[in-house]
Specification:
This protein is mostly helical. The protein folds into 2 domains: about 20-75, Homeodomain-like (Arc Repressor Mutant, subunit A, Orthogonal Bundle); about 75-215, Orthogonal Bundle (Tetracycline Repressor, domain 2), CATH 1.10.357.10. It is built from 10 helices and no strands. The relative contact order is 0.11. InterPro entries: DNA-bd_HTH_TetR-type_CS, Homeodomain-like_sf, HTH_TetR, Tet_transcr_reg_TetR-rel_C_sf.
Length: about 220
Amino acid sequence: MEVEEKEKSKGGRPRGFDRDKAVDIAMRLFWRHGYEGVSIAELTKAIGIAAPSLYAAFGSKEELFAAALARYEQDSAAFDLSKLRGAKSLSQAVRLLLEASIDAVTSPKRERGCMISSGLIACHPDHQALADDLGRRRDAMRKAIGAALRPWVDEKEAQRIARHLAAVMQGISIQARDGASSVELREIVDEVVAGLATRPAAAVSARHRASRSRSN
């Protein structure tokens, strides 16, 4: 997976350098191997430019990782919460969320797993700022899931369920990287959905209670 070799300009950067394609290549490498699992030499070889040109184009490996992460979030199909808007129940919403996550982390057109979940868990102290940024992104995802569940449960319960679902999705990502199939992972969805039946009845939101009353 390399940028096509073209006539080189000074510094080793090909004429007509395609920045978007370079970010896509870097994204795939970081997604597959994690931030610390990809060297500058591997990046320059895959992209087809010399190290000075990579630094001239992106500033640093850290900035290239940030660009790759932004591209991943932009293109990610795993976290499209708009799919939940048509759900008729909490159970259906949770099923839609987890099945979309499984499809994304097992798609043959994509790398296995989730770049945000596993791209930088353990790291050298010099890279702690990047790890903290990914942690904030995971936390934002969890909060967004909670907000998406508010039509069916109150705020406290929505965030409790969201934390559980975020943990499940991260586990799904790791198991997908380890080779678990889509069929195997969907068994987890059935277990999670079945467990929702045991949630406290008091957690049902006032808005949802009112909606049910009107429908009756």
